[in-house]
Amino acid sequence: MHGYRIRTASADDLGEARAVMLDAVYRDFGTGYVPRWHADIVDPERFYLIPPRHTLLVAVDERDGTVAATAALDARGPEYPANPRWIAERYPSGETAQLRRVYVRPEHRRRGLARQLVAELMAFARADGDYRSVYLHTYPSSPGAEALWRSLGKLVLDERTEQPGGGKEVLHFEVPMV
Fold it and tell me: How far from 65 is each of 3, 48, 58, 69, CA to CA, in Å?
């Protein structure tokens, strides 16, 4: 088995990282690019490389130097009304490290990349010192996502059961800072 190098993304990685992220929203979510939800994908430099409390990580395939996976963290909490009000209040911007864009290309899955990327993001959040919680949301339709997040965090809201028939399939998790 070959290896991967996990590192902070550089400006040179942004094109490939963007491709990994866009592929996921089209293939895994079926939503395609939606500007109000995915502005960070189009401009990852502004969202993740410039702000000091934000980061974008990439897993680079050592065989060919391509980006196999991405993972990001920022200080923007979940917004209401896209999310329930109590979720937005529980995880306010500035105090919450939100995990985002943890995506692995299909041919690189089942190798522990997402788990390794999340471990690096958690170390980044702890080193920051001002985050009081770590939050994320995911979709059960995303391959492997629900099992991964259930193994790493605590489910705080399953919109499938909270709003039966409401058509929302969003899972909200908190990941312990330890």
Answer: 11, 21, 11, 12
Q: How far apart are CA 135 and CA 118, in angstroms?
A: 12
**Residue pair 99/136 in contact by the 8 Å Cβ criterion:** yes
pTM assigned to the model: 0.95
Average confidence (pLDDT) over 132-152: 95
Residue 106: band (very low, low, confident or very high) from pLDDT cuts 50, 70, 90? very high
DSSP-based three-state secondary structure for 119: helix
Q: Which residues of 74-99 are buried (b: 16+ CB within 10 A; e: fewer)?
A: bbbbbeeeebbeebbebbeeeebbbb
Distance (Å, whole) CA 148 – CA 138? 10
The residue written with tokens 């059960």 in the block is 140
Residue 108: CB atoms within 10 A of its CB come to 17
Q: For residue 159, with 0-12 CB atoms within 10 Å meaning exposed, 13-18 middle and 19 or more buried, which class applies?
A: buried
95-120 mean pLDDT:
97
